């Protein structure tokens, strides 16, 4: 399968994507633990079916010290006992923030309160922007069928 578009072959898209990806790198500087960021990015990408991002964030999480067991259980985090309350709150926020149409009103107050219990305003801001960013990147990749899943090497985009 080949990509429908070559973003970097387009002057307009190439410039926009370059800046867009710089936004993604800025999250690494937030006080949200890197492993939590990667779990959130992975869960959003699983929901959206973005193989490129699933590959990337699985490998980045492993490079940041995440265990294989936890990575395998992200898709079933509700039933898994290996995630902290804070991580569970972030994953639930990620799910409701990704499934806006399914959540009839967006992110519910209970989900927001659970996240706010574990993350301060700066961290919540970072999580909300990360969730939105990942949804955008997933859509850019899925719409154009970016085919590079499996080839990513941890640290390649950082």
Summarize this entry quickly:
With 158 residues, the chain is mainly alpha-helical. It has 7 helices and no strands. It has one domain (33-143): Up-down Bundle (AhpD-like), CATH 1.20.1290.
Task: Summarize the SSE layout with pairings.
Blueprint: H1 11-26, H2 34-48, H3 51-63, H4 68-73, H5 85-98, H6 109-118, H7 121-143
Helix pairs in contact: 2-3, 2-5, 2-7, 5-6, 5-7
Low-confidence stretches: none
Question: Architecture, CATH level 2?
Answer: Up-down Bundle
Cα-atom radius of gyration:
15 Å
Shape: globular
Assign the CATH superfamily: AhpD-like
Domain Carboxymuconolactone decarboxylase-like: 26-96
Protein name: Alkylhydroperoxidase
InterPro entries: AhpD-like (IPR029032), AhpD_core (IPR004675), CMD-like (IPR003779)
Organism: Streptomyces mangrovisoli
Structure description:
- There is one protein chain.
- The protein has 158 residues and is mostly helical.
- It has a single domain (33-143), classed as AhpD-like, CATH 1.20.1290.10.
- It is 61% helix and 0% strand.
- The chain is built from seven helices and no strands.
- α5 (85-98) crosses α7 (121-143).
- The model has no long low-confidence stretch (mean pLDDT 89).
- This is Alkylhydroperoxidase.
- Residues 26-96 form the Carboxymuconolactone decarboxylase-like domain.
Observed structural traits:
Alkylhydroperoxidase, mainly alpha, single chain, 7 helices, peroxiredoxin activity, AhpD-like, CMD-like, 158 residues, globular
